[in-house]
Design brief:
The protein is 76% helix and 1% strand. Strand 1 (451-453) and strand 2 (456-458) form a beta hairpin. Strands 1-2 form a two-stranded antiparallel ribbon. It has 20 helices and 2 strands. By secondary structure, it is mostly helical. Helix 1 crosses helix 8. The protein has helices spanning 2-22, 28-33, 40-51, 54-67, 72-95, 100-107, 110-142, 149-197, 201-211, 224-239, 242-248, 254-285, 301-304, 307-314, 318-356, 362-383, 390-414, 420-443, 466-483, 489-492; strands spanning 451-453, 456-458. It has one domain (2-392): Sodium/glucose cotransporter, CATH 1.20.1730.10.
Length: 498
């Protein structure tokens, strides 16, 4: 009961902050980019909270449960991506557009912007949706099964959509101060208590070595292609993460944007390493629990994704467990808010304002975006039935964004020779490759033995899906750019520092 009281109390505090901040929204700039006046410390918190979502809380935990320490390759992809973004942050703030697709239009053309918008809408609906799915599981655990995961998912969806509609980016960056602190504190405090609950560090290591000694090695017994395949989605998503670029536009100035990136790097590395370690301790705690294994002895992937929350509810002192569960709320709400916000911004600006409501007043723009948030939330909720695990959804959506947008985006900032045709073709090729693989995986889902298409086994393990998608996107970008006319200098000069 204490767990529920603490978590509900925390949600009410966040709701109160959002309601209060909603009174300060006077313009579209306030709603979309928080008036471009966010200080560094708040920007750091909201950037960390953007990245640490259900994909980390559930996906990272589940991957650790079945691979051990080698899960860090999945996280390392994002860490490298943050360092790349460091060199882009000041330029993005200087250009001061609203969204990543604005950058694509400025560097390429309107077609690139529309394709980028379509890619973001599809992928981000999946990401927002698995925050709902994670929220449903969270509520089911918190209530000890009294509320089913399905009903919990609906409650989570309503809550997240409501938070986002209240005050937009102003609300997000305000409550993320609380969320960021709670996340970090909860992970730091949880780890020693989790280790202690299994009899100490020696007992944890002994349990893991007795059943899966490879879990303690960096490679985890996997080959080079697995490492590349598992790193690419997080790396590609991070450097083409529209919500991060939108938040750069919220910074006070270029210097603040770059400082915030380094703060984000530190926060993400610390929190994700702690989460991996907690999940690894969880494997020791639950290594003989039948709930986490299927009848053939293999790991129940969906159940494994709940490992961190299960530790908080079942193994920690009630106060520490309540703190960890509050961090779970922070993770789910903050990421769900952000991805709904970014998706709705793209739909509002790139579709409705561009083609239908060109003369809308600032007040009308805000209400139009609120309507888009609600509609996207409904569509994201309906998408959830198509996937089994959160990690599967994360890998597909990350790759959709990364393979479609990352090559074109990086080329915009680092390659003067890239052309509008090359950028457009690369975005389309990356998006279509991921869609094709996902559709084929669905068609051949129950194929036994595995089907073969051009020498590729189907269904393709989602751990590897980023490799072919990235190859196709990059090759298309380079070939089409070299085959088309060199762009005018005015196209690349705002993006590239000589």
């Amino acid at each position: 009961m204490i767990h529920i009281v603490v978590v509900v109390g925390y949600v009410l505090v966040l709701l109160g902050v959002s309601v209060y901040k909603s009174r300060t929204v006077k313009s579209a700039d306030d709603f979309m980019v928080a008036g471009r006046s966010v200080p560094v410390y708040m920007l750091v918190a909201t950037l960390v909270c953007t990245w640490i979502g259900s994909g980390s809380l559930f996906g990272t935990a589940g991957l650790t449960f079945r691979t051990g320490v080698s899960e860090l390759w999945f996280s390392t992809g994002a860490w490298v991506g943050i360092l790349v973004v460091y060199f882009l942050a000041a330029r993005v703030r200087r250009i001061a557009q609203y969204t990543l697709t604005d950058l694509l239009e400025k560097r390429y053309n309107r077609t690139a912007k529309i394709l980028g918008t379509l890619t973001i809408v599809v992928a981000y609906m999946v990401i927002a949706g698995y925050q709902f799915k994670g929220g449903g599981r969270f509520i089911s655990i918190l209530t000890d099964g009294s509320i089913s995961a399905e009903t919990g998912m609906l409650i989570a969806a309503i809550l997240i959509v409501g938070f986002t509609m209240l005050a937009g980016m102003v609300s997000i960056v305000s409550i993320d101060i609380f969320n960021g602190v709670v996340m970090l504190l909860a992970m730091i405090v949880t780890l020693p208590f989790a280790i202690s609950s299994h009899g100490g560090l020696g007992a944890v290591v002994a349990t893991i070595e007795s059943s899966h000694p490879e879990y303690l090695s960096v490679s985890g017994g996997h080959d080079f292609f697995w490492i590349v395949g598992i790193m690419l989605p997080t790396f590609l998503l991070l450097i083409s993460e529209s919500s991060i670029y939108q938040k750069f536009a919220s910074a006070k100035d270029e210097k603040g944007a770059r400082q915030a990136v380094m703060g984000m790097f530190a926060g993400v590395v610390i929190i994700e390493t702690l989460m991996m370690t907690i999940a690894l301790v969880g494997f020791a705690l639950y290594s003989n629990d039948p709930r986490f294994f299927l009848s053939d002895g293999s790991i129940n992937r969906a159940m494994a994704e709940e490992i961190i929350l299960r530790i908080g509810y079942e193994h920690l002192p009630v106060i520490i467990g309540s703190l960890l569960l509050s961090a779970g709320v922070a993770i789910i709400i903050s990421t769900g808010n952000t991805f709904l916000m970014v998706t709705s911004t793209n739909v509002t600006r790139d579709i409705f304002l561009a083609f239908f409501y060109k003369d809308a007043t600032p007040t009308q723009v805000v209400w139009l975006q609120r309507a888009c948030i609600a509609a996207i939330g409904v569509l994201a909720y309906l998408l959830m039935s198509q996937f089994e695990t959160i990690l599967e959804m994360a890998l597909i959506s990350y790759t959709m964004i990364g393979a479609s947008l990352a090559p074109a985006l990086l080329a915009a900032f680092f390659w003067k020779r890239v052309t509008s045709a090359g950028g457009v073709a690369s975005i389309a090729a990356g998006m279509l490759t991921v869609i094709a693989i996902t559709v084929l995986n669905s068609v051949f889902k129950n194929s036994d033995p595995a089907a073969q298409l051009f020498g590729i086994s189907l269904p393709m393990d989602t751990d590897y899906i980023a490799i072919p998608a990235m190859i196709v996107s990059i090759m298309t970008l380079v070939v089409v750019s070299l085959m088309t006319k060199r762009p005018d200098d005015k196209k690349w000069q705002p993006f590239i520092d000589d």
